[in-house]
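Q: Hi! First time doing this. I have a protein sequence and I read that you can turn it into a structure. Is that right? Here it is:
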Amino acid sequence: MRIKDISLDNRPVERLERQGPNVLSNAELLAIILKTGTKKENVVDMCNRLLSKYDNISKCSLKELQEIKGIGKVKASQIIAVFELNKRFSIKKNVNLIKSAKDVFNYYFPKISILDKEQFMVLHLDVKNRIIKDEVISVGTLNSSLIHPREVFKSAIKESANSIILVHNHPSGDPEPSEEDKTITEVLFNTGELLSIKVLDHVIIGNKKWYSFRENV
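A: Yes, that's right. Below is the predicted 3D structure, encoded as structure tokens:
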């Protein structure tokens, strides 16, 4: 059945206009974004098929999305763009004032939760613990050869940060620190003291939970 063959009252756009977005299914919301299906399948049915194939399409690559019949490069790009915008706005909605490890978790989790590789990041703060900048230092398995104090503090000095917070994710979901994590943390805490840029914490983010070195002293 084509969208044109669906009664006007039951089409996604008209239902959204009349009742609001909350009444629409995930497939209908996605159908509004993609607009068209194929000659043999309407866009809602195509979106239902896409959502049934992947548990979480926000983690799909451009190539994976194009494996669905009817989803070409343009439609796949539209889907990825929507989730990227959502991720960015979610981060902006979160706290800009850092008071605890929980605030760090709330700031980063929307972005980190979809990563399948470890990333080591630095959060730069001013004298009132407001975020100046966040920066990715390295991507990949965390080790001391990748995380050099020079790279960690270079941007902090440039941005005139009063303090920094170290952050990285554990894609396994378990935020408990490894021995390598502990070694790196000690080195960077000591380096911060020498440079008079205080390292307030090192927060490891897992699956909806976190580990704070400061809170576990």
